[in-house]
């Protein structure tokens, strides 16, 4: 089972890594333009993260439904769920593109970023939200059918195009985009549309194989997707809400708000790239394998998946955290972090051996719960840890105790300990061999009948 998990998780982790690498390159180029440019790129990344989490929630529902019916042999119904998910992704993606464009000026003004280049960058990035959300659902369909390499290829195409064009647009003096944030936005738009179009072409034959459905079955499948996806979306939204709240608290730091914001956004991008994105790949692989095992009634395989995913996560995230703690100078040089921001970054990296494994393990445990369609347990844990505990601790540490960025790191540590405890206890209740087996009422049949 460990080998099977790695075979599925590695392409998924690599897929998300290459996607995150685009943001890392943007942050690197923004470093040549100053702290305000880096803050703008970080804000755009957080806005993209909102839609990433919405798309991930829809992708979770897609993966659970498609994998469950693929596992039980009902491939026509599985393809029907894939069709519903694809149409939903297109609709949500259109809302994301228009909404991001409209809200960009408000966000920049709220966070005190007064830069015309940043304004155009945030708005020019908006159109890519539609293909980006669609690509998440297409990847869910591909991995549910054990086609992880195609997920990787789609992401690799997007990343290569985006990063190559970023370099060309940013460093070519003859172009109007020379040394502007707009160059990075245009590169991301083009890469996202091309990569997603290729992925859609690969999935199209499978979508066409769906059994013809009456309207009542379409509605039933849409409701089933929402029942799984909505708690997953809200659960992941807690991640963004807490980060935006901490960004707001950082504005209370009197010393150097812009430097503190730059350090914070660098930390978010660093964790997203080396911890959260790979952990999300393992979590999604865990979701697929557990859902597939439940669909085929292989109860013993579920516990094997859990053990393998936990072992892989602990080994990789622990080593990464230790490596980061010894790489402060290299990380700071990479992102052009100096002055007060360097001190804030150093204090975070000293806690990396603890903070990073906690984040990775909690993400994978949530993926295990999602595989059993228990997305409400993940939602409950995230609300308690990220929205309540993190925000309260940060408010007290920064607003009252005056700990500055140290207070932010304390809030991260406490909330991640709580999140790990909540997710771990939920997983043990549901999956431990000594406790009676529990699945959704009606098992696989609860996902909808035949057409």
Order of helices and strands: HHHHHHHHHHHHHHH
Helix content: over 70%
The number of helices is 15
As for the number of domains, it is 1
Provide a descriptive summary of the structure in words:
- With 451 residues, the protein is mainly α.
- It has one domain (2-447).
- Helix content is 83%, strand content 0%.
- Helix 3 (75-110) packs antiparallel against helix 5.
- The longest helix has 39 residues, at 257-295.
- Residues 434-451 have low confidence and may be disordered.
Key traits:
globular; mainly alpha; 451 residues
Give a brief outline of the structure.
This protein is mainly α and 451 residues long. The chain has helices spanning 2-30, 35-72, 75-110, 116-124, 129-144, 148-171, 181-208, 215-250, 257-295, 299-325, 328-334, 339-350, 352-371, 375-400, 405-431.
Can you lay out the helices and strands and say which pair or pack?
Elements: H1 2-30, H2 35-72, H3 75-110, H4 116-124, H5 129-144, H6 148-171, H7 181-208, H8 215-250, H9 257-295, H10 299-325, H11 328-334, H12 339-350, H13 352-371, H14 375-400, H15 405-431
Helix pairs in contact: 1-2, 1-6, 1-9, 2-3, 2-4, 2-5, 2-8, 2-9, 3-4, 3-5, 3-8, 4-7, 5-6, 5-7, 6-7, 8-14, 9-10, 9-12, 9-13, 10-13, 13-15, 14-15
């Amino acid at each position: 089972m460990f080998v099977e998990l790695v075979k599925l998780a590695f392409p998924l982790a690599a897929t998300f890594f290459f996607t995150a690498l685009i943001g890392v390159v943007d942050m690197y180029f923004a470093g040549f333009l100053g702290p305000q440019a880096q803050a703008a790129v970080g804000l755009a990344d957080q806005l993209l993260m909102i839609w990433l989490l919405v798309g991930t929630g829809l992708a979770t529902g897609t993966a659970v439904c498609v994998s469950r019916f693929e596992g039980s042999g009902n491939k026509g119904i599985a393809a029907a769920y894939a069709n519903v998910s694809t149409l939903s992704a297109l609709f949500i993606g259109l809302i994301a593109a228009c909404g991001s464009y409209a809200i960009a000026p408000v966000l920049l003004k709220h966070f005190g970023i007064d830069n015309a280049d940043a304004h155009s960058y945030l708005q020019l990035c908006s159109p890519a939200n539609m293909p980006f959300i669609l690509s998440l659902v297409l990847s869910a369909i591909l991995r549910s059918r054990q086609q992880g390499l195609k997920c990787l290829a789609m992401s690799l195409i997007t990343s290569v195009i985006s990063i190559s064009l970023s370099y060309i647009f940013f460093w070519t003096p003859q172009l109007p985009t020379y040394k502007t944030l707009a160059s990075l936005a245009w590169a991301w738009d083009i890469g996202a549309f091309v990569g997603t179009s290729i992925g859609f072409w690969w999935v199209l034959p499978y979508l066409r194989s769906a059994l013809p459905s009456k309207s009542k079955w379409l509605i039933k499948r849409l409701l089933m997707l929402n029942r799984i996806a909505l708690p997953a979306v809200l659960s992941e939204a807690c991640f963004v809400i807490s980060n935006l709240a901490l960004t707001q608290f950082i504005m209370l730091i009197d010393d150097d708000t812009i430097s503190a914001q730059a350090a914070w956004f660098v930390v978010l991008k660093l964790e997203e790239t080396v911890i959260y994105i790979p952990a999300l790949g393992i979590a999604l692989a865990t979701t697929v394998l557990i859902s597939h095992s439940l669909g085929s009634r292989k109860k013993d395989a579920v516990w094997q998946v859990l053990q393998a995913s936990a072992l892989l996560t602990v080994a990789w995230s622990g080593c990464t955290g230790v490596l980061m703690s010894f790489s402060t100078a290299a990380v700071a040089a990479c992102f052009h972090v100096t002055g007060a921001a360097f001190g804030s970054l150093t204090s975070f990296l000293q806690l990396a051996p603890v903070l990073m494994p906690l984040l990775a393990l909690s993400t994978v445990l949530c993926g295990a719960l999602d595989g059993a369609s228990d997305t409400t347990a993940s939602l409950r844990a995230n609300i308690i840890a990220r929205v309540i505990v993190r925000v309260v601790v940060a408010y007290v540490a920064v607003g009252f105790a005056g700990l500055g960025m140290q207070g932010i790191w304390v809030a991260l540590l406490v909330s991640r300990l709580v999140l790990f405890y909540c997710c771990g206890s939920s997983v043990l209740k549901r999956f431990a061999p000594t406790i009676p087996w529990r699945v959704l009422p009606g098992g696989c049949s609860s996902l909808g009948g035949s057409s």
